[in-house]
Amino acid sequence: MNSFRTEQGGRLCRDRPLGFTFEGRTLQGFKGDTLASALLANGVCLVGRSYKYHRPRGIMSAGSEEASALVGIDRGEGRFDTSTRATTQELFEGLKAVSQHCWPSLRFDAGALAGLGGPVMSAGFYYKTFMWPESFWERVYEPVLRKLAGLGRAPVATDPDIYSSRYAHCDVLVVGGGPAGLTAALAASEGGAKVILADEQSEIGGDLLSTPEVQIDGQPAWNWLKSTAQTLASRDNVTILTRTTAFGYYQQNFLGLVERLSDHLGAARPGSPRERLWRVRARRVVLATGSIERPLVFSGNDRPGIMLAGAAKTYLKRYGVRVGQRPVVVTAHDSAYASAFELAEAGVEVRTILDQRAHIPAHLSKRADRLGIEILAGHTIARTCGHLRVSAVYAASFDAIKGGRKISCDCVLMSGGWTPSVHLFSQSRGTLKWREDIGAYVPDVYTQNAVSAGACDGDFLLSEALNRGAEAGGLAAGATGFEPGGQNRFGVAGEFPLSAASLEESTHATAAARGKAFVDFQHDVTAGDIEQAVCEGFHSIEHVKRYTTTGMATDQGKTSNLNSLAIASEALGRGAPEVGLTTFRPPYTPTSFGVLAGHSRGKLFEVTRKSPIDSWAEENGAVFEPVGLWRRARYFPRDGEDMHRAVSRECKATRTSIGISDASTLGKIEVVGPDAAEFLNRLYTNTWTKLGVGRCRYGLMLGEDGFIHDDGVVGRLAEGRFHVTTTTGGAAGVFAKMEDYRQTEWPDLDVWLTSISEQWAVIALNGPNVRKLIAPFIEGIDLSKEAFPHMAIREGKIFGVPTRLFRVSFTGELGFEVNVPSAYGLAVWQRLMEAGAEYDIVPYGTEALHVLRAEKGYIIVGQETDGTQTPHDMGMDWAIGRKKPDFIGRRSLGRPDMLVPNRKQLVGLLTTDPAYVLEEGAQVTAENTSAVPARMIGHVTSSYWSETLQRSIALAVVEAGRKRIGGEVYIPMPGTVYPARVAEPVFYDPNGERLNV
Amino acid sequence: MSEPIETRLKPFNPLADKTLALGGRPDLFLRPEDECARFSLRVPVGALKKAAVAFEGNIPENIGEMSVGTGKSALCLGPDEWLLLAPYRDAQSIIVRFSQLYETAAHSLVDVSYCTLGIKVCGPRARLALNSGCPLDLENMPAGRCTRTVLAKAQIILLKFDDQHYRLEIARSFAPYIWEFLKNAGKIEEH
User: Fold this and answer.
1) What SS3 class is residue A631?
2) Quick one: residue A572, left, alpha or beta (phi over 0 = left, psi -120 to 50 = alpha)?
3) Based on the domain organization, do A408 and A427 belong to the same domain?
4) Residue of A nearest to B14 (CA)
5) In terms of domains, do A276 and A194 share one?
6) What's the average model confidence in pLDDT over A19-36?
7) Do A462 and A516 belong to one domain?
8) CA atoms within 13 A on the CB side of A424
9) 0.95 cut: is pTM over it?
10) H helices of A393-446, where?
């Protein structure tokens, strides 16, 4: 193929070539490649532009920690994914990838000029640079920055994919399918425990996929891996999830996993999901999440061709790719030598290893000698050259960092040691401890039922990982009540030995670093930025992070956090543990919105609760409005009426003959027991003990703060049985509040609550002809004024259907509320509509309801009240049982602030111009002025055109409002000030004569 | 009042006439349960034996237990809370006997016949479809148990008869949503 692809080896299917395009260029790779390995095999080194400075960037890693090689993947209409890591995207036939952050083209980028501006874009630049003039932000700075920053391209088309979602339970969840995870899963499942093993890669194996040269128990690693995978797959109690990322670790061993089902194939098969969200509750968790190699921080460490040393080995061993022909290695850690030696043995001309350490272990220098590799101890890279690919480095010792010897190369392999991946452990609220010998944090105290094993616990050797994993798995089985497995020890031969580097040694380079020495490659944060932040007084790592944005990109600082910490701690002259570590938060890697939404889209986006009569309303052209999760008919337009005309007609019909309305969505609670009346006494402001059986009362419920919380009519069905109604929106909250008080405050009361909201359909009939309408169909109830007065409840039948018939009114007209079992609501409604034709019955919606009740000055909780109104403010002192020893909120009503005379009180407003309908929410002033500022003394809460009164009406809360009745207030609106007369809040039939007929 | 209502009026059920069968066996089968009378019973455990006499059926004592008889079933949902299911024809006599019991043992019996609708969920894919939105470990939930729980965005009561046979009780206004959810989940989990 070419000199980058090896002739053999790796885990590729070399008989399965795959064609793909990058930036429109057609290229070829193999099944088993990632996009990154296929690009490298084609000699493509330049993959994208950086976020802030638009610098050319290549591939820096071989895994999910990639911070540089972010591309857009186009799978067709609606299937464009932005900022996908080329290192995790598996190759498929026809894959289309494009670079991002570049304009006009990848090779020539105008934004790179920003790099010339250097200091302009330094740490905290957006706090400083674009602050003035203020008006420039919206019109100039933001649009330009957005264009330049170009955080990838957001998709605009609807996502056509479907996503699965599943809850699962297991005894042991093993996160990570590397050596430790594999032996943990083996040991955990041996005795029959239900085990889930999740790994983010396309196949299990982890680091073993890059180390075929070692022997495990006398077998080549890949043979051992194959037989282990087979053993696990053959166990019914084991579920292996590949391409599955555990992205979040929540309370009580609850973890979120995303399984990618089709991204490696292109599009999903029709009907099948693209991704699956697993919400797993595990009795015990084994974290085997491995470690991530740290970059070194030197000037120009971001040029394409500079990558992590371990990644180069992975590309060679797993993907059959030589990342370059003439690499230079720079390291502070032994493991880079493994990469150097393997590449050299594969025929790559490795000339020089720059080791930042002064002392090189003898076995390494001997082997290097044999391979003809020069080692420069105590050296690092002073700077690099090359435009779109690194072409040379300057090797220098720390005391002569300005100069150095030029070494030409086509790639640089770097290693600053390894960082245990403690992200999930940290999310589980476990605490970390600093390990000086590896220069990193490792798990310390667990707060959940979990254990870590292998590299994520600081054990980097394969033999350690295998045995610690087996131990952890065995213990997990034992801890969940199964026979503990994992007694055998694994023997490893041919492993590259490690002597750990300390962090201190690698920071020499960072202290010396000048120019563009990158720490966070995705957010373009340099060592200089961190030092500058410290200089400017940011001494906590959390503040340094926010000021410089280091570690805040989508990679969450997987490769940068410890380097940032090291630089900050050096600049502060304090040890790393004192400077701390930023908090890890889910998700571990970017997670699609689609999979989080799961089923909740389209018809299932949200529940729409419909009343039993909803279908009639829909067939009859109702316009609906949402009320909580319910939808309610707002008005019923006829013959092209607009809302105003429809509502006027509905109101008029109700006042003159009959209006019918669906009130089924009201909350209903049946309160039963010998202490039911006492319970209501304590809950509501009103007195209930004296309410006769068969009578109703309007009840007002306060919070402990004394403010109105809910209201509703309560009917007494029997000595110990009440039918309580609540507002539609307040139903669930009121029920929960009642149950709370019942169980925790007054467990001594013999009373029980049952929600009956959905048991009863409620048809509200209002108007002078209502009694005449229903009389022929009612059985067992005397409807006469004397026998069935206003505010009463009776049980009987209507059209043969059992009913709880309330005589109540929220309109001021003669009113009945027909409660029937909800299955019969629709049929009874239809019968009433038929029978009502004689009286020109008119269905009305919530809008007319609001007008009718406002004409009577009846409040709506949540409209006239906003959680700061007392009964007195609303003119409802009559609802307070003065003689009661206590009720919820009673004490608060006596607080001095509740008694001041200038509290806002409910009043009516009548505009001087009767045709003008005020805006709800408009402010009220005492002075006739539109000058700003003016003192606001209240606001309009409800405002309508009243067809009945042929003028506008409004309710408002106004300071000392009742004293102002008869006076004038002003409502300033843009361009005009509207004067209005303050009036009693009852506009129509103030003596209630229409009710008592 | 839960006697079969003698009227020419037609009861309305938003799930009426619906069935769903996915896959060959079928793998997931949904159908509305037959209508029945339902009562919410709240009673101190001390009076439970008397309540069982009034019900003329077994009432289990421990949370999560259910007693399924011919026609009458009783589900223990809380420390003092039961859901009673009975044929409509028995409803009036149950009401009368409990009102007599009230004289000697305070309790609350409330007719909730029309609050919920029942859905039968069965088939080899039933558990997977339910676990698409229900966080409980249904696999390890013993057969013959019941519980109040959630399914997607709705509260439900779930009865497990065996691994491939469940009954859900869902508030009426949530029932069409749950039906749609299970249909969707059943289709997706086919893959």
Assistant:
1) strand
2) alpha
3) no
4) A612
5) yes
6) 97
7) no
8) 31
9) no
10) 423-427
With an 8 Å Cβ cutoff, are A271 and B187 in contact? yes
**Domain annotation covers residue A873:** no
Which residues of chain A does B40 touch, with a Cβ-Cβ cutoff of 8 Å? 754
A817: amino acid identity, one letter? E
Amino acid, single-letter form, for residue A675: D
pLDDT on residue A506: 57
Res. B190 pLDDT band, cuts 50 70 90 = confident
What does the longest C-alpha to C-alpha distance in chain B come to? 58
Residue A380, H or E segment: strand A379-385
| Cβ contacts of A754 on chain B, cutoff 8 Å | 40, 42, 108, 110, 112
pLDDT reading at A126 higher than 70 = no
Alpha-carbon span A712 to A728, nearest angstrom? 10
| Contact partners, residue A913, CB within 8 Å, separation at least 6 | A978
Other beta carbons within 10 angstroms of residue A463's beta carbon come to 17
Is A114 a residue whose pLDDT tops 90?
A: no
Q: Locate the chain A residue with the closest alpha carbon to B170.
A: A758
CA A488 to CA A510: how far, in whole Å?
44
Is residue A147 very low, low, confident or very high in pLDDT (cuts 50, 70, 90)? low
Is the separation of the CB atoms in A634 and A646 below 8 Å?
no
Q: Is there a contact between A604 and B109 if contact means CB atoms under 8 Å apart? A: no
- Residue in A167, A609, A630 closest to B131 by CB: A167
Q: Please tell me the predicted confidence (pLDDT) of residue B3.
A: 44
Under the banding of pLDDT at 50, 70 and 90, the label for residue B8 is: confident
Query: Which two tokens mark B39?
Result: 């009562």
Give the closest-approach CA distance of A271 to chain B in angstroms: 7
Q: Count how many domains chain A has.
A: 6
pLDDT exceeds cutoff 80 at A136: no
Enumerate the domain spans of chain B: 17-33+115-191, 36-112
pLDDT of residue A699: 96
pLDDT of A484 reads 86
Inter-residue contact A458 to A168 (CB < 8 Å): no
Residues A35 and A146 in one domain: yes
**Is A800–B6 a contact, with Cβ atoms under 8 angstroms apart?**
yes
The domain covering B17-33+115-191 belongs, at the CATH homologous superfamily level, to Probable tRNA modification gtpase trme; domain 1 (3.30.1360.120)
pLDDT tens for each residue of A551-597: 999 899 999 999 999 899 989 998 888 888 888 899 999 999 999 99
Q: A608: distance to nearest CA of chain B, Å?
A: 8
- The DSSP-derived string for B108-158 is EEEE-TTTEEEEEEESTTHHHHHHTT--S-TTTSPTTEEEEEEETTEEEEE
Quick: pLDDT tens for A301-355. 999 999 999 999 999 999 999 999 999 999 999 999 999 999 999 999 999 999 9
The pLDDT value given to residue A269:
84
Spatial separation of the C-alpha atoms in residues A30 and A606, rounded to whole Å: 44
Across residues A151-171, what is the average pLDDT?
89
Alpha-carbon span A655 to A661, nearest angstrom: 14
Taking the C-alpha atoms of residue A103 and residue A802, their distance in angstroms, rounded to an integer, is: 74
Collapsing DSSP to helix, strand or coil, B48 comes out as helix
Confirm if A53 and A115 have CB atoms less than 8 A apart: yes
- Enumerate the H helices of chain B as residue ranges: 48-55, 88-101, 126-131, 175-188
pLDDT, chain A, mean: 92
Chains A and B form CB pairs within 8 A to the count of 143
The enclosing H or E element of A714 equals: strand A708-718
Q: Which domain holds residue A463?
A: 163-291+421-493
Considering only A70-84, A106-120, A436-450, A848-862, which range has the smallest mean pLDDT? Answer: A106-120
* CATH number of the domain encompassing residue A303: 3.50.50.60
CATH superfamily for domain B36-112: Heterotetrameric sarcosine oxidase (3.30.70.1520)
Contact A670 B171 (CB under 8 A): no
Instruction: Give CA separation, A5 vs A30, A44, A60, A549, B47, in Å.
Output: 11, 12, 18, 38, 81
